[in-house]
Amino acid sequence: MSKRKDKAWYALFTVPLLFVFTTVVIIPFVIGIGYSFVKWDGIPANPKVFVGFDNFVQLFQDDRFIASSWNTVQFTVLSLIAVNVFGLLLSLLVTTKLRVSNAARTLFFMPNLIGGLILGYIWQFIFTDAFKLIGQKTGLGSIFFNWLLDPQFALYAMVIVFTWQMAGYTMIIYIAGIQGIPDDMIEAAKVDGANMWQRLTRIIFPLLMPSFTICFFLTLSGAFKMFDVNLSLTKGGPNNSTEMFAMNIFNEIFGYGHYGLGQAKAIVFFLVVAILTLTQVAITKRKEVQM
Amino acid sequence: MKKTKKVFGLLTATALIAAMVGCGNSNGNGSSTGSNSPSPSSSPTAPASSPAAPAEKLKKISIFQSKVEIAESLEALTKKYTEETGNEVEVWGSAGDAYSTQLRAKLAANEGPNLFSVGTGSDAEKFKSYFYDLSNEPYASNIAPNIALKLDGKVVGVPYGVEGFGLVYNKSLVDPNNVKDLASFTAALEKLKADGKNGLSLSQEAYFLIGHIINYPFALQPDSKAFIEKLNKGEVKMAETKEFQEFAKFMDAIKANTGNPMEVKYDSQMGDFATGKTAMVHQGNWSYGMLKDFGDLGFEIGMMPFPLAGNSKLSIGVASNWVINGTSGADEIKAASAFLNWLLTSETGKNAIVNEFKFIPAMTNIEANELDPLSKDVFEATKSGQTIPWAFNDFPQGIIVNDLAPATQEFFLSKDMTGEQLLQKLDALWAKAAK
Fold it and tell me: Is ipTM over 0.95?
């Protein structure tokens, strides 16, 4: 009786979600696979011409697509490092017996509550106006200039904004991980004479592996498919130098009206993200240790 | 404890279901064009069967259009239409930049609007399977010569109004007689620079950076449409065409003597112009709306032609056209045409076009008396035929934003890129985009 009831409750909460997930993710995805084999300009009344794998061949000859993948790789690697280093540092900071640690947690987490679009627009102002002003006032013109007008620095600017947004989130996960480590274990290590560095590398990091798995996954997939900051901060400019995967697909579809080709890119994009994240999870999972 | 959990669960479930039902409902109402469910507020307006109905009751129609600027006035106008005629019109929210995407989505879902707007040229070409033939409608004969939206010899669209762009200049700083060709243009910029003024300002938005200004070498070709087709096929090159070569020199002069447009946005561009820091901006009559917010400028403004290859005409064209969705039902087409007729011929409608929408009329039956200075220059040029077309309407889709603008960004950002190199780059990009 009660088991049946459990199932009913289970269904009550799962079925709507399953329904939504199927209608807005699964079904469009399957339809999308179909579109990737046609040439179509997106006007419903205009013909969809079946071209087989032409779109997939064509996308590898698209210099701009290749360039955007390179941008994405650069961005992802830099973000992966920056987000996790800062997230970890912040979590270590706020788990010490600091008096302001609670306030600090809130503050560090806060950027994550602001949408990426808004963050992008705010930082656009900082990079264009504030940076320029600082550069003029302090004479450090070689560091403080409008980063968004320099191809390489515009990419760094995106990394900064993304880190700003994500570090607080990963911090929360690391905090949970750190708090899951029994105090007596650390105590024991202290008694055995392990210094801070040894405690970190020999005890805390290995026991934090589950948190690393989650955080790496989140930052890796998040950075790879990032669109909002890209759009609001640089719009892919200057001269397409910060155009990332997602934005390239968006431009292909809605800019040029190449629905088929864009869809083919999106499928490739999906595969790449899936392979990358699965590999990463598999690798980091293996490193997890049982307490 | 257990009880509270249960109650909470039930509540959540109800809320969820309510939300789903709610969504379904509002969706149905918002998008279904055919359903004529009378809402309580609309029931007093005489139903079709009522003997008191003054005229034939037409079916309710929907309008979807791209200009956010007129969204509110249009909605107010449709209320007046309902008051005057008893027919109902529903205006869907304008989406601005995402308009085309949303229009496609709605058409794809067979929930397309009855009356909508399209651009001119390649934009209209895309949607042509939807257009209803307006050639025989009474208002079509009032469209000013040569600017009706025509496809295959049929009138399919009525222009919103004409718009024009050129060099908007500060009359106290610039004398148009001194800006007649490349040499005098450059000299004017140099002189202004020496006086501590910015001679000319473009701004970083794709159309204001390159889209509009590159129109000149195209529009000055004997047949711009044929030229673009040849360019698409790779039979001609910009770098080998005289007008473009001069265009490159103009770009060099702009780069050398004015501020970097990549650091300028539309609003700062107009702000600097309004405060007298910039002497000329490359803008259209639409920019007056922004200038007006500054109040009394303290100087007079006007619009003059961009003097490329001795050009003495303003670039004038039609950005948006009204079209009727030919795939909607016959009675809806009839109702849509009736609304268009009312908009273009009734006093209320004509007044709204000029005074509420602030359009420069593209109809011979609409007078425009109180135009702002920039619109006046455009209107004068239109009437006297001193115009060159908007050739960029025939460019391949998306090329300005996706290809021309990034290349121009590079031109303005890199120190040693010349106008000639810009042209070569544009040629290469064009060859790829036109495929």
Answer: no
